[in-house]
Each structure stands twice: as C-alpha cells, then as structure tokens.
C-alpha cells in the first residue's frame, strides 16, 4: 500500500509523512512561538511589578493603571498589532510589545492582589525586627505574594501562547504563521498539526508553571486543597477576559 | 511616522466608506456577525449555567470550559473550520467559531455568580417558604446579576475580537480593512482599520457597562449582604 505517500497528495488532515518531511519547519516555528511567548511574559512581569508597587502606594495610580490595562485588554489582538505597525514595522518586536501590553492586565491585577493580601502582622513583625522597605519587600512581601503572582503568570502564559498565532499577520506568529500559510495553500495537515502543537504548547507551559509554583511555594500545599480551589475560582472571576 | 496623518486622511476620504469593501458595509457585517452569535451563545450558555448554578452541580465543567477556551487559539479554530466542508457554506464557519468563543465567559461567570450567592440568604428564602423557582427568580438571579453581566461583557468583547480575526480566514467584517491594508502594504489603511476596530470594541464595552447599571434589578441589594459586595468588587 502506498497510503504513506498518498496522504500529502490527497491532502489528509492527519499525515505522518508531513510531520517527517517538514519536521525542521515545525521545530523552527515552535521555537519561534516559545521565544515570543517567553519574551512577552518575562517582559510583562518586569513591567507589571513596578506598576503594581506604584498602584499599591496610591489609590489614584491604582485606578489609572487598572483602568488603562483594562482598556488595552479590550482592544482586539489584530487591531493591537496593527496599531503598533508604524512604530515597529513587520518585526517580532511588534508582536512581543502587543503581547506584553495584553499580559499587563492579568499580571498587574494578580501581583497587586498578592501584595494586598500580605498579612499586616507579618509586615509589622518584620518592621519590628528592623527590616528596611527593600528588605521587607524582597524577603517578606514578595514571597507571600508569590502564589498570586505565579497564578497570574500561568493565566498570562496560556493566553499569550494562543495570541502569538495572530502575529502571523506580520509574519512572526510562530505556529500561527504555519496555520495562515496552510489556509492560503489549503494544506490541511499543516493547519491541523500546527494547531495541535499550539494547544499542546499551552498545556505544557501551564503544567510546567504549575510545577514551578509547587516547588517555589511549598507552604501553600500544607493547606486544605478545598480552600485553594475556592481561591482559584475567585481569581478567575477577577480576571477581565 | 506619517502613519497617523495618513490614517486620518484615509478615514476622512468618503470613498473609503462607500461600496462593498467600504467602512459602512464592513461595519454592518461585523455587527451582524457579532449580534447573531452573541444572541445564540447567550441562549445556549445562560440557561445551562443558571440551571447548573441553581442545582449546584457541574462546577468543574463551568469553570474549566474557560481555561480550555483560553488555551485554544482563535485563529486556529477559524482556519480549521474554514478548511472543513463547512467552509463551503459561506459565513457558517465564522459564525460557529464566534459562538464557540463566546460561550466560555458566559458559562463560567453566570455559574460562579449563582454559586457565590450567600448560602444563608438562600436558606432564609427557603425558610420563608419560597419554592425552588421563587428562590431562583427572586433571590439567586438578582444577586448573580452583576457577574452574569460581567460574563456578557467579556463575551461581547471576545466576539468583536474574534469577528476581526475572521478577516484573516477570508471573511468580511472590519478586520478586512486591516488585512486588505497589509496586502496592499498600505500602513495608513492598516492603522485606520485598527482604530475603527478598537473604537468599536471600546464602544461595545462602554454601552454594556451603562446598560448593566441601568438594568440592575437589585439597587437596594447592593447595600445589603457582605457576600454580594465582595462579588461586585471582584468583578
């Protein structure tokens, strides 16, 4: 039987021959996808953290920052990337900038919620022991806010993996570029393979971050699992999709 | 950096607003896609979510459907549906994709809204002799209303965004102005289209915020139970 040769010719949805012959193309697209997602989330955390600290200080800043990031989140992804076109041209920097702006909504909210949930007693005790503001932040407040921060990073990462595909409009969409090219040439195997890889990437990233969360915050596991689940739900409500 | 004045020129040229690929026609398509699919999604998701919330079952489904929705790329679903035999039926793939992505926020928020209603309030209502249906209509639904509206807003914004992406899969709507601009390497047109899409999304969000306040069935309830206050703050 020559079914193996035929699946490319007959344009089947599932085609092992496609995966074998174009594996380099798939690896390159996946690598670009991971690179764009990782850069976006990392930059997002670096920008969101000082914003959350500022927002914690002043109520007016908090209102402005949360309002602005919500407005950014409302802008559809294709429009966001297009509005950045005059600034960045057809580049990966354009896609990363757009994705950073999206991730801010979730990250700032979660970091702020984490910092606000630090018990007053812990802060008082640290001050009493002579901790300065910087040491207080790094050694007391940040570790206590870490579970909320990491929950935000997980949500932001999963949605960033999905949104990266839209970068295909400027030719830097990782697996999204393969999906869009597959549409133009009605190449079913390419579209399905790239789509499945994209979902797998999101799931893998989520599990990886869940593992990191468990490793970094072992004390959260000691609590009853039920209470954690309730909190996880509350966080989802807080997220303005 | 002459893209902004260029976009302004594009927007103020009346020829760009007329005809098959003009702004008015594309806006009409966009609103038609968005309106129909949002209505269908509400009809599918809200009764199910409110019922599940009322009987207190199916929480895992209602919450996880949002996580799945977040992980699946909209573009991939649009392209996949377009390449299936459904693609021969004109707008159908787009309409299906739009409904699929509008359902998760509606389902999750309405369910959580119902479950976050203070149990003691429900107990009290039952103690007063209210039937299941009365508790649902007079107690649970008004108290869940803010989160149901949050879900509706999220779904509406999602639908407007997805309808924009439909242009990348060859469909109509305002996104088509953007993709046509990319094909023509006409940056002012890309920026003008993006501005129109962003303005529409923000307008839809704004209108729904106002509508939600105007239609709120329980203005007095907001002063009451602490549980509700928390729910509102979180949304």
TrEMBL record, chain A:
Keywords on record: Membrane, Transmembrane, Transmembrane helix, Transport
Principal place of residence: membrane
Stored InterPro entries: ABC_transp_perm/SBD, MetI-like, MetI-like_sf
Cellular compartment(s): Cell membrane; Membrane
Domain ABC transmembrane type-1: 30-209
Pfam families (alphabetical): BPD_transp_1
Keyword Membrane applies: yes
Entry keyword annotation includes Membrane: yes
Superkingdom classification of source: Bacteria
TM ranges: 34-54, 61-81, 87-108, 144-171, 191-212
Record's bilayer topology term: Multi-pass membrane protein
Gene Ontology CC annotations of this record: plasma membrane
Record-level GO BP terms: glycine betaine transport; transmembrane transport
CDD domains listed in its UniProt record: TM_PBP2
Family: Belongs to the binding-protein-dependent transport system permease family.
Name this protein carries in UniProt: ABC transmembrane type-1 domain-containing protein
Automatic annotation (TrEMBL), chain B:
Transmembrane segments: 31-53, 65-86, 92-112, 143-170, 190-212
GO biological process, one term: glycine betaine transport
A GO term from the CC aspect: plasma membrane
Domain of life: Bacteria
Protein name: ABC transmembrane type-1 domain-containing protein
SUPFAM superfamilies: MetI-like
Keyword DNA-binding annotated: no
Keyword terms, alphabetized: Membrane, Transmembrane, Transmembrane helix, Transport
Membrane topology annotation: Multi-pass membrane protein
Domain named ABC transmembrane type-1: residues: 27-208
Family named by the database record: Belongs to the binding-protein-dependent transport system permease family.
CDD domains assigned: TM_PBP2 (cd06261)
Subcellular location(s) per record: Cell membrane; Membrane
Source organism: Streptomyces poonensis
A Pfam family recorded for this sequence: BPD_transp_1
Predominant location: membrane
């Amino acid at each position: 039987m020559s079914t193996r040769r035929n699946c490319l010719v007959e344009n089947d949805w599932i085609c092992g021959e496609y995966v074998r012959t174009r594996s380099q193309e798939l690896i390159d697209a996946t690598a670009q996808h991971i690179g764009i997602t990782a850069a976006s989330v990392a930059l997002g955390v670096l920008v969101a953290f000082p914003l959350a600290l500022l927002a914690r200080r002043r109520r007016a800043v908090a209102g402005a920052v949360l309002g602005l990031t919500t407005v950014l989140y409302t802008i559809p992804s294709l429009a966001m990337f297009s509005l950045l076109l005059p600034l960045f041209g057809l580049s990966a920097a354009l896609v990363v900038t757009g994705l950073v702006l999206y991730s801010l909504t979730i990250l700032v909210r979660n970091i702020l919620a984490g910092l606000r949930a630090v018990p007053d007693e812990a802060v008082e005790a640290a001050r009493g022991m002579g901790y300065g503001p910087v040491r207080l932040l790094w050694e007391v407040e940040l570790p206590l806010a870490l579970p909320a921060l990491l929950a935000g990073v997980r949500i932001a990462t999963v949605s960033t993996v999905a949104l990266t595909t839209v970068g295909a409009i400027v030719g830097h969409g990782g697996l999204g570029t393969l999906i869009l090219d597959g549409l133009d040439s009605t190449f079913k195997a390419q579209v399905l393979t790239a789509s499945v890889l994209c979902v797998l990437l999101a799931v893998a990233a989520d599990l990886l971050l869940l593992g990191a969360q468990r490793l970094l915050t072992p004390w959260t596991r000691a609590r009853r699992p039920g209470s954690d689940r309730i909190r996880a739900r509350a966080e989802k409500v807080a997220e303005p999709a | 950096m002459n893209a902004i004045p260029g976009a302004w020129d594009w927007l103020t040229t009346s020829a760009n607003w007329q005809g098959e690929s003009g702004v008015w026609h594309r806006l009409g398509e966009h609103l038609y896609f968005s309106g129909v699919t949002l209505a269908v999604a509400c009809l599918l998701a809200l009764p199910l979510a409110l019922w599940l919330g009322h009987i207190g079952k199916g929480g895992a489904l209602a919450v996880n459907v949002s996580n799945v929705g977040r992980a699946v790329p909209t573009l991939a679903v649009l392209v996949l549906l377009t390449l299936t035999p459904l693609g021969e039926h004109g707008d159908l793939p787009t309409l299906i994709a739009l409904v699929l992505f509008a359902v998760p926020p509606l389902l999750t928020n309405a369910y959580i809204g119902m479950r976050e209603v203070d149990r003691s309030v429900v107990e009290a209502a039952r103690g007063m002799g209210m039937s299941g249906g009365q508790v649902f209509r007079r107690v649970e639904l008004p108290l869940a209303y803010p989160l149901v509206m949050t879900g509706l807003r999220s779904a509406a914004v999602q639908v407007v965004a997805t309808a924009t992406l439909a242009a990348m899969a060859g469909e109509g709507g305002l996104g088509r102005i953007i993709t046509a601009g990319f094909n023509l390497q006409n940056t002012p047109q890309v920026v003008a289209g993006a501005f129109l899409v962003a303005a529409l999304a923000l307008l839809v969000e704004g209108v729904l915020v106002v509508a939600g306040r105007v239609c709120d069935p329980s203005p007095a309830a907001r002063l009451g139970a602490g549980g509700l206050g928390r729910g509102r703050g979180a949304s």
